[in-house]
């Protein structure tokens, strides 16, 4: 199973609503767990009508609504580079090496912008867009989720 197949499996699991999937093949085993709320089915209700757990309270917004709207409008002209997997985000190949990209750098399609470590594998993440890095949204050595925004890029 290659990395693209694993990424597709992660997408499928996140959309399906299941909490855990295990897959075992020759010399390969993978378990994907999500932190989604489990879905409960009430026995008195037909199976087609699941009852879900109550949603967790939304985080308190600390910035004024007007500022949030302005920030949303400002970022709408940018392209977002998102994480293709769950793992740990690194801006450089090692602590002594320079960052792959910094704010203001111009990037092209195929340029390595970061590394994401997943299951002891270091995966170079390449840009799928050309432009200028406007903002780095994740701190170095921070955990990232699948599809989490990593960079904002201004198209050139």
Outline the secondary-structure elements.
Blueprint: H1 3-16, E1 20-25, E2 28-33, E3 39-40, E4 51-52, H2 65-75, E5 79-82, E6 87-90, E7 106-107, E8 112-118, E9 121-126, E10 131-136, E11 142-144, E12 149-155
Antiparallel strand pairs: 1-2, 3-4, 5-12, 6-8, 6-11, 7-10, 8-9, 10-12
Features:
156 residues, alpha+beta, OB fold (Dihydrolipoamide Acetyltransferase, E2P), 2 domains, 4-stranded antiparallel beta sheet, globular
Concise summary:
This protein has two domains: 3-52, no CATH class; 75-155, OB fold (Dihydrolipoamide Acetyltransferase, E2P), CATH 2.40.50. It is globular, with a radius of gyration of 19 Å. The chain contains two helices and twelve strands; from the N terminus they run H-E-E-E-E-H-E-E-E-E-E-E-E-E.
């Amino acid at each position: 199973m290659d990395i693209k197949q694993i990424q597709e499996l992660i997408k499928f699991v996140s959309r399906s609503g299941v909490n855990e999937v295990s897959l075992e093949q020759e010399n390969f085993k993978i378990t994907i767990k999500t932190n989604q709320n489990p879905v409960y089915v009430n026995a008195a209700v037909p199976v087609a009508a699941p009852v879900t757990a109550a949603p967790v309270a939304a985080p308190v917004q600390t910035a004024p609504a007007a500022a949030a709207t302005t920030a949303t409008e400002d970022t709408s002209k940018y392209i977002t580079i998102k994480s293709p997997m769950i793992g740990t985000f690194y801006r450089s190949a090692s602590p002594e090496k320079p960052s792959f990209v910094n704010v203001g750098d111009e990037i092209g399609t195929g340029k390595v912008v970061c590394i994401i470590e997943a299951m002891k594998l270091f995966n170079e993440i390449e840009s799928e867009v050309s432009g200028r890095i406007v903002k780095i949204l994740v701190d170095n050595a921070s955990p990232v989720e699948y599809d989490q925004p990593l960079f904002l890029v201004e198209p050139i």
